[in-house]
Amino acid sequence: MGCKQATVAVQSGSNIDEQYGCVVPPIYLSSTYNFTGFNEPRAHDYSRRGNPSRDVVQQVLAELEGGAGAVMTSSGMSAIHLLCTVFLQPGDLLVAPHDCYGGSYRLFDSLSKRGAYNVIFVDQSDNQALKQALAQKPKLVLIETPSNPLLRIVDIQYICGLAHEVGALAVVDNTFLSPVLQKPLDLGADLVVHSCTKYLNGHSDLIAGAIIAKDPVIAENLAWWANNIGVTGAAFDSYLLLRGIRTLSARVMLQQNNAAAIAEYLQQQPQVKKLYYPALKNHPGHEIALKQQTGFGAMLSFELDGDEQTLRHFLSALKLFTLAESLGGVESLISHTATMTHAGMAAEARAQAGITDSLLRVSVGIEDSQDLIADLDKAFQAAATR
């Protein structure tokens, strides 16, 4: 009988040490492993290719997402780069969201300009534009839902079906929700990618990424290429990621509850021009989110009514929300999208994606929700009386 997500996150990979009976798997820091004899390697020979600590966390990641195998990489961006290296050649086409994470956009844009592959950025909620892009027979279709930073929701099952009709592989960036709240492989995706730096680790002390594959052959191919180009995760990073995963479900549910309370407060705040949060019934993707997610997550964005000085006063008055990039940690963070996470996008591209200069993205942590709301309230007052 299969266990629930919270149980898998805590139990998978535990109690596997046969030498000392360690409940927590040991950290194997060795870079190399001896051969038992001439041309007789062990299961591991060199840690870039395989490491016992990384093996454990990869097993847990695959179980959480329901995949056949996983590859842990040195960062979320190295996971994205690995995907493109494995599945795209010069002349091949990638279809990506027009409002995808700024780092992904920068990578796709820069490599396409060098001829590594071609890319089309498209509003995937625009069915006509999406079908026009897919008619050009892409090899890979990237889906990011909820999107970063506008929390747009697209139908994973529908887009995966369209991708498969034209012979493309479908990959879903599941960073914002984690497998606790969304299971893309169950909805038809071939691959799932994560910035493990975010919710999976949850403590803002690790840079890592992961790709989980539904097909074991694809998983093996990804592992071969990860070793080949040297993007695999380190042993100590594997330990940190596994430690973070143990509390994944508890953290995500508390963060989600806090986000719901903050969203309710922001709806009543006159200085908020627009609020982006899929739990709101007037959110364009609300019904799709209800269908494919088991929760709405802890990310939200809003546009502040005012000029740059208003923005500066608001941000400087915050005490509990740290002005910083990244997301998914136990502490609450706020970022100004245009000058931080999406600064790598040209102003024209940001405008086309709907990212304004007044947009703020919030990653809600596990602090007391009333303290967080009080902090926001003081900041709004400071911005209004500048």
Automatic annotation (TrEMBL):
Keywords: Pyridoxal phosphate, Transferase. Its EC number is 2.5.1.48. Its cofactor is pyridoxal 5'-phosphate. One of its GO terms (molecular function) is pyridoxal phosphate binding. InterPro entries: Cys/Met-Metab_PyrdxlP-dep_enz, Cys_met_metab_PP, O_succ_thio_ly, PyrdxlP-dep_Trfase, PyrdxlP-dep_Trfase_major, PyrdxlP-dep_Trfase_small. It holds the Pfam family Cys_Met_Meta_PP. NCBIfam families: O_succ_thio_ly, PRK08045.1. Belongs to the trans-sulfuration enzymes family. This is Cystathionine gamma-synthase, PLP-dependent.
